[in-house]
C-alpha cells in the first residue's frame, strides 16, 4: 500500500484542523521552525506550508528530498530560494491579495499616529515627561504621500490613504500601470512628507532607505513607514536619523523575532516618534480565515493533481 502523503506546516502558517478536514487521507504535521524540524519528517514531506520569517535555501532544501510544493500563506518570498526550488522541480504557491486591505488599514493607523506624534507623546509620558508643546503637527490633509512599490499592498495603501492626504505619488518604474500617479524616485525625497515602503526584498532594494535617501529627504524630515520587508531599510541608520531629527517619525511592521533587538547597542535614546509591531499588518480574523481556506484548497488541489489520495 502506498504511504499517505505528508504535509508539514510551520506553526502559524495554517489551520491544521482545517487542513486535516480537507485532506483526511493526508498526514498533517506541525513544526515550530524549519531549523528544528525532525529530519525524519523533512525526509518524507511532499508539501511544506510556510509563513514569513523562515529560511528555505539550497542547503536546507537538501533535508527535504521529496518536497514538491511550497505553499506560502501570504505574499513575501524573502528567505525562500525560488531559483533553487524551481531547479529542483518544487512549485511555490503564494497568495498576496487577501492581506492587502488589512495592511493598508494598519498603515492608515500608523500614519495618523506618527503625523500627530502620538508615539512620541506616549513614550515621553512613560518617562515622566509632559511634552505637549513638542507635539504640534501639521494636518494630515496637507501632507504629500510617496508610495514605493505598486503591488497589491502598495496599490491598496494608495486607495485607502488618498482621501486623507493632499497628494499621492508612486515611485515611477517602467512596469507601472499608466493609470497610477507617479513621480521619479529621485524627486520623491524632496517632495513627500511621508513615505510608505512596500517593496520586495530584492538585491536592488536591499538597504535602499539608508544614508543616501535620508540625506536627500532631510530637509523634509518625513515620516517613514515600512510595510514591505525590513531589509529594504538600513534600520540602524533610520533610527539614528529619527533620534537626530532627520526623520519626523518611523514605523516598522515587518519585524521578525530574528530582527531583535532593533536598536543597536544597549540603550535607545528617547522619547521617539517611533512605532514597531511584530509583523501584524495582515493579522486580522477575516484575512486569516481566507488564507487558511486558500492553503487547504491549494494543498488538496496540488496533491490531487499528482494523483495522491487526499480524500
TrEMBL record:
Could you tell me which SUPFAM superfamilies the record lists for this protein?
Answer: Formate/glycerate dehydrogenase catalytic domain-like, NAD(P)-binding Rossmann-fold domains
GO MF assignments: glyoxylate reductase (NADPH) activity; hydroxypyruvate reductase [NAD(P)H] activity; NAD binding
- Record carries keyword Repeat: no
* UniProt entry keywords in alphabetical sequence: NAD, Oxidoreductase
Segments forming domain D-isomer specific 2-hydroxyacid dehydrogenase NAD-binding: 108-281
Q: What's a single GO CC term here?
A: cytosol
Q: Which PANTHER family match?
A: 2-HYDROXYACID DEHYDROGENASE YGL185C-RELATED (PTHR10996:SF178), 2-HYDROXYACID DEHYDROGENASE-RELATED (PTHR10996)
What name has this protein been given in UniProt?
Hydroxyacid dehydrogenase
Amino acid at each position: 500500500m502506498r504511504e499517505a502523503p505528508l504535509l508539514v506546516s510551520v506553526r502559524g502558517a495554517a489551520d491544521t484542523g482545517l487542513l486535516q478536514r480537507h485532506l483526511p487521507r493526508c498526514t498533517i504535521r506541525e513544526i515550530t521552525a524549519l531549523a528544528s524540524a525532525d529530519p525524519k519528517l523533512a525526509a518524507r514531506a511532499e508539501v511544506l506550508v510556510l509563513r514569513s520569517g523562515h529560511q528555505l535555501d539550497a542547503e536546507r532544501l537538501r533535508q527535504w528530498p521529496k518536497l514538491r510544493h511550497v505553499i506560502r500563506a501570504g505574499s513575501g518570498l524573502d528567505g525562500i530560494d525560488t531559483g533553487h526550488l524551481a531547479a529542483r522541480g518544487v512549485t511555490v504557491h503564494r497568495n498576496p491579495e487577501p492581506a492587502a486591505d488589512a495592511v493598508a488599514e494598519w498603515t492608515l493607523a500608523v500614519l495618523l499616529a506618527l503625523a500627530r506624534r502620538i508615539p512620541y507623546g506616549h513614550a515621553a509620558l512613560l518617562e515622566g515627561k509632559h511634552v505637549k508643546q513638542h507635539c504640534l503637527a501639521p494636518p494630515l490633509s496637507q501632507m504629500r504621500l510617496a508610495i514605493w512599490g505598486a503591488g497589491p499592498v502598495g496599490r491598496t495603501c494608495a486607495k485607502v490613504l488618498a482621501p486623507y492626504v493632499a497628494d499621492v505619488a508612486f515611485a515611477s518604474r517602467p512596469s507601472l500601470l499608466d493609470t497610477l500617479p507617479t513621480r521619479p524616485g529621485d524627486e520623491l525625497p524632496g517632495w513627500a512628507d511621508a513615505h510608505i515602503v512596500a517593496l520586495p526584498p530584492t538585491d536592488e532594494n536591499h538597504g535602499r532607505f539608508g544614508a543616501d535617501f535620508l540625506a536627500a529627504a532631510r530637509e523634509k524630515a518625513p515620516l517613514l513607514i515600512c510595510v514591505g520587508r525590513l531589509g529594504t531599510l538600513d534600520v540602524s541608520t533610520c533610527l539614528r536619523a529619527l533620534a537626530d531629527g532627520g526623520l519626523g517619525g518611523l514605523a516598522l511592521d515587518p519585524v521578525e523575532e530574528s530582527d531583535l533587538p532593533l536598536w543597536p547597542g544597549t540603550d535607545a535614546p528617547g522619547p521617539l516618534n517611533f512605532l514597531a509591531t511584530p509583523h501584524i499588518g495582515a493579522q486580522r480574523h477575516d484575512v486569516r480565515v481566507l488564507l487558511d481556506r486558500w492553503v487547504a484548497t491549494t494543498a488538496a488541489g496540488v496533491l490531487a493533481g499528482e494523483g495522491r489520495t487526499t480524500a
